[in-house]
Amino acid sequence: MSTANVDAQELAKFSELAHRWWDPESEFRPLHQINPLRLDWIDGLSTLAGKQVLDVGCGGGILAESMAARAQRVTGIDLAARPLGVARLHALEAGVGNVDYREIAAEALAAEAPATFDVVTCMEMLEHVPDPASTVRACAALVKPGGWVFFSTLNRNPKSFLFAIVGAEYVLRLLPRGTHEYARFIRPSELSRFARDAGLELQAMKGMEYNPLTRRYWLSADTSVNYLVACRRAV
């Protein structure tokens, strides 16, 4: 597997905002708001207690640190050094001792430590790499047989363009302009194929919706914009 599945511009984009990662009123506010929904959905299916967990594309550590409160140990990996530094500092300040962070590609870690983790998460990352199928294969290689792999990304259709780019970045300004590139959005059928080809079995899929008036997110059956996928590696 390639170890160069990275877009330098994407790394730079998130590195520039690294110091604001843990500010719940910053550009990362949506991540803070959806984190409890993601965490409970992951835990409800995989039961994090006592598990070795890997968060691929962990950024500043919002999900990784929250999973560490429930799991035995969490490893977060990313290729952006500045967000990783923020993640390490926040964990230290919060006294979270069972999470650690590494600057390494998923493909490289898969070659180094295959079938190591009980649960692997890869949230809001696939739409930011040149070859998302490669990331999916790496996640499948990293999880133990019978283990769980979770993905979240954005669907590719006119509605998702209107909501996720025009609405979120330009009208509501929930995200910085240029956060997403529509051509990199991934249809559920495409992600399902990547997963099957990597030896993963689809277990569940949920959509995530947002009401701009109440500023509330919730999980639903509508996968037309944001969606989450749960898979298991065959035993």
TrEMBL record:
Pathway participation: Cofactor biosynthesis; ubiquinone biosynthesis
GO biological process: methylation
The keyword S-adenosyl-L-methionine is annotated on this UniProt entry: yes
Record Gene3D superfamilies: Vaccinia Virus protein VP39
Binding positions for S-adenosyl-L-methionine per the UniProt entry: 38, 57, 78, 123
Gene Ontology MF annotations: 2-polyprenyl-6-hydroxyphenol methylase activity; 3-demethylubiquinol 3-O-methyltransferase activity; polyprenyldihydroxybenzoate methyltransferase activity
Keyword hit for Methyltransferase: yes
Alphabetic keyword roster: Methyltransferase, S-adenosyl-L-methionine, Transferase, Ubiquinone biosynthesis
Reaction equation(s) it catalyzes: a 3-demethylubiquinol + S-adenosyl-L-methionine = a ubiquinol + S-adenosyl-L-homocysteine + H(+); a 3-(all-trans-polyprenyl)benzene-1,2-diol + S-adenosyl-L-methionine = a 2-methoxy-6-(all-trans-polyprenyl)phenol + S-adenosyl-L-homocysteine + H(+)
Domain of life, per lineage: Bacteria
Top-level enzyme category: transferase
EC numbers, comma separated: 2.1.1.222, 2.1.1.64
InterPro entries assigned to the protein according to its UniProt record, in alphabetical order: SAM-dependent_MTases_sf, UbiG_MeTrfase
The family this protein is said to belong to: Belongs to the methyltransferase superfamily. UbiG/COQ3 family.
Protein name: Ubiquinone biosynthesis O-methyltransferase
Species for this entry: Rubrivivax albus
Underlying gene: ubiG
